[in-house]
Amino acid sequence: MLTIGVNTFLLTSPFTNESIDIIRQFKDWGSDAIEIALEDASHIDPHLIKRALDDNGLRCSSICAAMGPGRDLRGTKEEQQNSIDYISQVLETMVLLDCPVLVGPLYSTVGRAEQTTDDDYKAQWDIVVKHMKTLAARAGDLGRKLAIEPLNRYETDFINTCEQALKLTQEVDHEAVGLLLDTYHMNIEEKDSAAAIRKAGKHLFHVHACGCDRGAPGNDHIDWVGIREALKEVDYTGSLVIESFTPAVKVIAKAASIWRNFEPSREAIAVKGISFLRSHFA
Q1: Is the pTM of this model over 0.85?
Q2: What contacts 24+ positions apart, CB below 8 Å, involve 163-172?
Q3: Residues 152-178, buried b or exposed e (16+ Cβ, 10 A)?
Q4: β 3-7/204-208 pair status
Q5: Tens digits of per-residue pLDDT, 46-81?
């Protein structure tokens, strides 16, 4: 059985020490794990959070990188350094949380989407590869992993597909670097989500599972049977994490263009989603 988790953006932004009750909430909703969207490493005392996780029988399956304004591996020199510092600090925090993987669009600010020339794109690509090599080495030294996430075309112009993310992974060429595939983004950008999973193969480190409308997984038009069978074929043993948002968390709602509720409540997203994933992927 795959580990089933929920991303903290469902309930709050930012996640801090004061958010600790979310851990109990996720446990009560049936989650095996929590994906902490950590906007700054200084926001939490990792020892405090780890004790709360242990007390509730949950694990931190992943940290979701918050690549907001000012963090961009292909941006200005200051933005590049901000990103390197942020990711490096989060990696160190992950050791104390016993968290295996940092996930997300590590390469760029979310929302940077514009037409670029081939030369400009190549220059950005080379900068990102260089920085990712440095970060991969640091992650490897700490026994952690980095999972690069393709986003849809409205959120980035840089990496939209599994094939592009694989190319970046192959150029970085480090065992600590792999992919995160998200059913929502794949539904927009991939011809065949199951085929994308098979293409990722052993490089697939993490999966975000949510509905085609960004709501609870299940009861939507995504080919969940095909996704389940593809994950079996590549021997995926990681986590399935629900990453859904609501208008209640206003900063994230604006960033992800969430203007309406997908379910009657945030609890419904988690409970319905966890129930579907647990039954479907058992």
Answers
A1: yes
A2: 163/196, 163/199, 165/200, 166/199, 166/200, 166/203, 168/107, 168/125, 168/128, 168/129, 168/132, 169/203, 171/129, 172/129, 172/132, 172/133, 172/136
A3: beebbbbbbbbeebbebbeebebebbb
A4: unpaired
A5: 999 999 999 999 999 999 999 999 999 999 999 999
Note the pLDDT tens digit of each residue in 222-263.
Answer: 999 999 999 999 999 999 999 999 999 998 888 889 999 999
- How long, in residues, is the chain? 282
**Cα–Cα distance measured from residue 100 to residue 9, given in angstroms and rounded to the nearest whole number:** 19
Question: How many alpha carbons lie under 13 Å from residue 133 in its C-beta half-sphere?
Answer: 10
pLDDT tens by residue, 81-140: 999 999 999 999 999 999 999 999 999 999 999 999 999 999 999 999 999 999 999 999
Assess whether the previous peptide bond of 217 is cis (omega < 30° from 0): no
| Distance, CA of 101 to CA of 113 (rounded, Å) | 26
- Tell me the longest C-alpha to C-alpha distance in the chain: 52
Residue 65 token pair: 């990188």
SS (H, E, C) 179-214: EEEEHHHHHHHCCCHHHHHHHHHHHEEEEECCCCCC
Chain centroid, CA 10 distance in Å: 13
Strand 3-7 relative to strand 59-65, pairing = unpaired
Tokens read off for 202: 């052993």
The type of residue at 275 is S
The CA distance from 207 to 179, in Å, is 9
Tokens of 113: 């989407």
User: Side chain identity at 203, as an amino acid letter?
Assistant: H
